[in-house]
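ok so i was messing around last nite and threw this chain in just to see what happens. nothing serious, just curious
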Amino acid sequence: MEYQHILYEVADGILTVTLNRPEKLNAQTRRMHAEIIAAADQWDADDSIRAVIFTGAGRGFCAGTDLTQNNTWGGGKDAPEEFPPKYVNGIRRDGGGELVLRLFDSKKPMIAAVNGPAVGIGATFILPMDVRIASDSARFGYVFTQRGIAPESCSTWFLPRIVGIAKALDWSLSGRVFNAPEALEHKLVSEVLPQDQLLARARAIAHEYSDRTAPLSVAVTRQIMWRMLGAAHPMEAHEMESQALSSLRTKSDAGEGAKSFLEKRPPKFTLRPSKDMPDSYPWWPELEFKGKVEW
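result:
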C-alpha cells in the first residue's frame, strides 16, 4: 500500500510511524486506519524492525476522527470510497476497533510519543501500545459523550485496565479534555517531557527493548502479558507460559542466551517472530460473539 496519511521511517532497527495530516492536526480517516493496519502487517513481517514509535506531524498528535470526510453522524449515508466501512449482520463495525485489535496483535513493542492534542480516537488507539509518553503540551480527551456517541476502539476494555475504573469513568462520562500532568498522575502515560526531548526518549526506550533482547522472546512475552489481563485464574497463565517455555527452551536462542551470559558478551539471537513463533501460538481459542457473528 502507498502511504498517504502516515510516514513509515526505519532507522537503526526502530520504525517511526508519523500520523501525517498536520493541516488537520492528524485527524484520522478510514484511509489512515487502513494504512496503519497495513504498516502493522509490514513491520511484523520485517525482522529487522525491533520496535515501533508512533507520533504526529506538526503541533498535534491526533485530533480524533476527521468529521469533515464522508460524515455519517446523525444518519448520513456512506458515499462510495476506497475504504468503505464493514458491516456484520447489519451492524457497522467500529473502524477504530479494527485498528486497535490489529495493534493488540503486534509482535513488536509499540511506544506512543504523544506530541500534542490527542482526543477521541487519538486518545484510544494508543491504549494497546506498550508505553505511552507525552510532551508537556499534550492534551487528552475521551470526548464521546460530548459528541452524542459511544466509546470506541475497544477503549472500554483497555482504559479501565490501565487507569482503573473510577478514573476511566470520570474521563469518559464527562468527556473533558485534560492535560499531560493529569495523564501522568493516573498512569495513562509514564513520562512527561519537554517537546524537544520526546522523540529522543522514545528512541531510548525502543533501544532498551531491542538492543540485548531476543526478538522472539519479546514477541511471545508481549502477546502473553496482554492476554493475561482478561484471564480468570492464574492457571491460564501457567498453561500459556508452560506451552511457550516448552517450545522456546529447546531453541537456539535459549542456548545463546545462557552461553552469552556465562561468557559475559552481548548475545547474538537468530530466531525471528515472522517465522519462528511456538507451534502452540496463538495459544487462545477463536472467540465467538453472541449469535456466532464472525467479526
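not much to say yet. The domain at 213-295 is CATH 1.10.12.10 (Lyase 2-enoyl-coa Hydratase; Chain  A, domain 2).
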